[in-house]
Amino acid sequence: MELNLDLNRDIPVLDWTPHLAPRTEGMKSSAIRELLKLTQQPDIISFAGGLPAPEFFPLREVEEACRYIIRKDGAKALQYSATEGYGPLKEYLATTMHKYGVPAVPDNVLLTNGSQQALDLIGKLFIDSGDYVLTGRPTYLGAIQAWNAYGARYHTVNLDDDGMVVDEMEHAYEKVLADSGKPPKFIYVLPNFHTPAGTTMPLERREQLAEIATKLNLPVVEDDPYGQLRYEGEDIPPICTFIPERTIYLGTFSKIMAPGLRLGWIVCPEVLMKRFVQAKQGCDLHTGTFVQYIANDICQRGLIKPHVRRLRQVYKERRDTMLDALAEFWPEGCSWTHPQGGLFLWARVPEPVDTTEFLKIALAEKVAYVPGVNFYPNQDGGYNAMRLNFSYSPPDIIVEGIRRLGIALKKALGY
Amino acid sequence: MELNLDLNRDIPVLDWTPHLAPRTEGMKSSAIRELLKLTQQPDIISFAGGLPAPEFFPLREVEEACRYIIRKDGAKALQYSATEGYGPLKEYLATTMHKYGVPAVPDNVLLTNGSQQALDLIGKLFIDSGDYVLTGRPTYLGAIQAWNAYGARYHTVNLDDDGMVVDEMEHAYEKVLADSGKPPKFIYVLPNFHTPAGTTMPLERREQLAEIATKLNLPVVEDDPYGQLRYEGEDIPPICTFIPERTIYLGTFSKIMAPGLRLGWIVCPEVLMKRFVQAKQGCDLHTGTFVQYIANDICQRGLIKPHVRRLRQVYKERRDTMLDALAEFWPEGCSWTHPQGGLFLWARVPEPVDTTEFLKIALAEKVAYVPGVNFYPNQDGGYNAMRLNFSYSPPDIIVEGIRRLGIALKKALGY
Predict the structure, then answer these.
(1) pTM score of the predicted model
(2) Residue B271: which of A16, A57, A125 has the nearest Cβ?
(3) Residues B286, B145 share a domain
């Protein structure tokens, strides 16, 4: 073939905008993702991302799993596989749900590319342009990003120290109905160690939420990425336990094993699972076979439980370090949540400080966080708040970062 | 916590239909995926799936890569990473595109969960309910499945021995415009070793397609999963080469490395790439870090080229075996394509035989294929055709499967 195409030739630039679907206007690049790029500069102390501590990744366990899988089952582990997920791993996950009282069987479980894909699949199945989601203010911004792509709107209820204020839900439902002529598509809730707020919903409020969801005939999306990372108090059963027939429960290996595997799961009723499987087929055929085999091997060898125990120690120390540093270095008028688990706390600063503006000062001091407003789907709050991650940085770095932020805050407040 | 939840309690069944988005009615489970389940029965000879030969997976290479990556770079390989993909792998892919004359740089490349996710992202960015896609009849059913989820409609042009009949495109454009008041969103084309048809588009027709796309101001989605698996003749430059400013090119590691890694890529103009990255963030944050490191290690060590050379030998032999067996065992009146590469050929049987009906007979004889109608997005053809895969089964099994189909065909035709 004779073809002399010049690699340096001028290529015209096409305007793609008129070709795109109108709903893509709602898609924006995530503030967190853009920040993550910034914070890859090695000299930045980052409280911004939701990254686990890489020095505690189960490297030996993964290496052993890879060798074992390739030698024993390589031809299957590298081949196409069922959309639903790898059988033994589904069985393991169904069984672990049992200890919470969730009557799950393997057919209730779907493996996904991290929880983020579960959020996307929910958007794909439920949300048409203009539909409302009922969620808290603040709420997880990855969910907002997933659902914006389908044209979602948001009606929010407040959070108090016990998470979403369930008493506001019936009123919110009526408002949505009046505004759009349709009920909201579902309630989105993060009951354990809420991101970004760090709150945990007590048992009674979970039962209350289950009751109101049933009364209003609304599905519940229960996002539980950190449930196993509890540092004090006792486990509380998921909402899924009370209303399995109307709950879509989301779990993930990202925080308890490794996020780079991209492995999460959905637990939901079998009648709905068929629809999720259809949607996922169109999305990517199935979740990676090899990474499912790796996670399964580590779980089945009983290595995940001691690993999670270890993580709980490490992250508890980091949480306590951050709480102590905040008390020591931050000026009067600031406040913060005391999370019982998870990766984040939510800090408030006195009103003159806008945390989006203040981020520039913080970055000049080589510290990063996520400004609170990013977690308000309608941008109607969080101006004086920030989300702080305590899982990623070692304790001495946490102290230094909080100290720097404290000095900068005092300066900004004129102390 | 005191909670006695009976795992065997009766759980009410919710009717989820009224909660779902109306567009989900277009989603159906893929015939191929459902068939794959059937064909997992070990005694079935399956020409149905698009599975690579598992006995030639690069097991040693993957095992070495895993060990090396975990030891050298484990903390990064298991962590969250950039949505765009792993830098060194993007660079490798951009460079390999150069040899076709595509002026790609790493910023033109996005890593995806197999090509299927690329198809889904295209649907997400381009297709609103009722929008038309211009494609061939037949065409790849994974694309139909991806775009049905966004409510796509299809206008098709015929295929001849040289692939999509480009001469029909202008008329098709006018029809779509008249019918929907809008141009089609893009042209979807599989120029190399078309699935299911097995045809390859010659250079002249690719240039002609590039011209008509430019004239009509239409984007082109160029799906090239098998481009490197050519068994005769010379490589032909991708359409992307002629109109990089309006082409979205899709590649994949599924057929040249292993599908269980779920790794594909998009090459497109930088102005459009930003939108793909936003869409992918909402879908799953990023493609698995670990599997990208594995693929990169195998590519950078120079192991992929000899591996692909090997695959070309193996699959050429299997293609030739299938062609010979068809000539030997199938009755008069049947015909089939002679693919220059890829994994499939397209066989036609005499009109009284409906290949959907005949599949039951074939399965009773323990042989599977995909009936042709599944590749017609408007179900307006393919009734007497079938797609036969020749990559998965070893030669002796191919002969036996084609022999059994031949006997059953003769019986069905009353010979």
Answers:
(1) 0.96
(2) A16
(3) yes
